[in-house]
Design goal:
With 351 residues, the protein is an alpha/beta fold. It is 37% helix and 18% strand. The protein has ten helices and ten strands.
Length: 351
């Protein structure tokens, strides 16, 4: 079954065709980075307008690269949540219209679940490792979300931990913006950190209560980046180890990146201990971070599965892939389905 996937949850206008939930026939991503770079962040109004201008051509390019006509598409999948509401509505409206005009089965999906599905996808040549067996631990790290969860099926997750304030990608973006490292912040920090000293600063890590005094629920797998962000931006001198005159921007980037990844790693270790699961599947834009990948890959007794770098960010292939699983099961979305900016449970309250 060949499924057209449409993704427009933020600032990437994307479409792809995937066959039988695994084989990528095409994957087109039109980035809006040049339009948002001068603001050092995504401007929702600009994002939704660019999606409106580009979506038809991007979907057409995805069909062309797959070597298919519209009549050869057998199903349509689209992101409906979470994300920027205006951006979501553009992709959702296009996908509905395409499905209705061709009388095709249609499914609206959660792109957080799709990120965790991304490592199961194969390139057009069929290259790729065997997908991990369920259950496993999911690590979703992006600009808007930081989630650690137990994954029992493609659409069945139990959130074990989530951010109580900033997401990890958001912290990368804000630190990069403050110091002028570049945009997008995650990629800029990762690149700059390669030549820096990760021991130049010893930034503090959050200390969350393991138990919630109100209801007894645990916080051992929860995450917090507000304190680290404040320390790096407003209290830099307090945590300097290296001599001030020899400190470089690369040192700041490397030390911050190390601390940010250590927060994730510590919470993930707690999840491994709590569940007994030793396979971790990562997804989201921050999953492309080279230090995170090496840190997890170097952990003995833990199998870490990452999508290819081009599948870490928002893309249509992951939407088409997970959409196939829903459609094969017989699930369908009504054309009245609408977008949702947030999903309950993807952020935690504290204490």
């Amino acid at each position: 079954m060949k499924v057209l996937g449409i993704e427009s949850s933020c600032d990437e206008c994307a479409a792809a065709v995937v066959e039988d939930g695994r084989r990528i026939l095409s994957n087109v991503v039109a980035t809006q980075i040049p339009f948002h770079a001068k603001y050092q962040g995504v401007v929702p109004e600009i994002a939704s307008r660019k999606h409106t201008e580009w979506i038809y051509a991007v979907a057409g390019e995805a069909l062309d690269k797959a070597g298919l006509g519209p009549e050869q598409i057998e199903g349509v999948a689209v992101t409906s949540r979470p994300g920027l509401l205006g951006s979501l509505l553009v992709g959702l409206s296009f996908a509905k219209a395409f499905a209705w005009s061709r009388n095709l089965p249609f499914i609206a999906v959660d792109h957080i679940l799709a990120h965790l599905y991304a490592p199961r996808l194969l390139s057009g040549t069929g290259e790729g490792e065997a997908p991990p067996d369920y259950p496993f631990l999911g690590l979703l790290v992006s600009g808007g979300h930081s989630i650690i969860c137990r994954v029992d099926d493609f659409d069945d997750i139990t959130v074990l931990g989530a951010t109580i304030d900033d997401a990890v990608g958001e912290a990368f973006d804000k630190v990069a913006k403050h110091y002028g490292f570049g945009y997008p912040g995650g990629a800029a920090v990762d690149k700059l950190a390669q030549s820096g000293d990760p021991e130049a600063f010893r930034f503090p890590l959050p200390k969350l209560q393991k138990e919630n005094r109100r209801d007894g629920s645990g916080h051992s797998c929860d995450l917090s980046y507000s304190g680290l962000k404040t320390a790096v931006i407003n209290q830099l001198g307090q945590f300097r180890v290296k001599e001030a005159e020899s400190v470089t921007p690369a040192d700041i980037a490397a030390s911050f990146q190390k601390a940010a990844v250590e927060i994730l790693f510590r919470a993930l270790q707690n999840a491994v201990e709590d569940t007994g699961l030793a396979t971790v599947v990562a997804g989201g834009g921050a999953a492309a971070n080279s230090y995170l990948r090496s840190r997890l890959a170097g952990q003995r007794g833990l199998r870490c599965v990452f999508p290819s770098p081009e599948l870490c960010g928002d893309n249509g292939a992951m939407i088409a892939g997970i959409g196939f699983q829903y459609l094969r099961r017989g699930d369908r979305s009504p054309l009245s389905v609408t977008a949702a900016a947030r999903v309950p449970g993807f952020k935690r309250r504290y204490p």
